[in-house]
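Tutorial handout. Part one gives the primary structure; part two gives the three-dimensional structure as tokens.
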Amino acid sequence: MIVHIQVIFLLLILAATTWTDINYHRIPNALSLGGIALAIALHTWMAGTSGLLTGIGGMAVGMSIFLPFYLLRGMSAGDVKLMGTVGAFLGPHNALLATGLSLGAGGILALLILLTRGGSGDLARRYWATFKCFVYSRKIVHAPPAAGAVAAMKFPYAAAIGIGTLVTLWWLGILQDTIGLIL
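Part two.
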């Protein structure tokens, strides 16, 4: 069970990592790995062995779902570790929800970036070419974006993780309770 102090620490970590990712395109290990250690320590302190397993299980869920995207060069290792941090705070079940919502938020942010930076035409042409290739040859051939194209640019995925986590905390009623306690 996540308590208010854990939510506050998690929100501070998400704010700091989002800021550093937007400004420097990196997520410091001190924040992500330190966050994992803090979350597991807090869970263990509050619930003993059960808490330890909750923290480790949540970390494993978050990291294992993001790991394939890292291996396919779709995101950085910092993003994977940050999702592990979120999972360590939330526990396995809630980490699954936060991970799914973070992926959804990332897709929406990526689409917004494409639309606002003029990359949607190139994206449509590449996917149309992939579709035509499939229709004629029954093979799926991925047409990667050209170097320097909007679709080839990386964006600060910590923002998507932050949004997905905030929506998860709100959905679970945890965010409202914590804000009510602070105010």
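Part three, for discussion. The first helix runs from residue 4 to 24. The chain has two domains: 4-117+156-182, 118-152.
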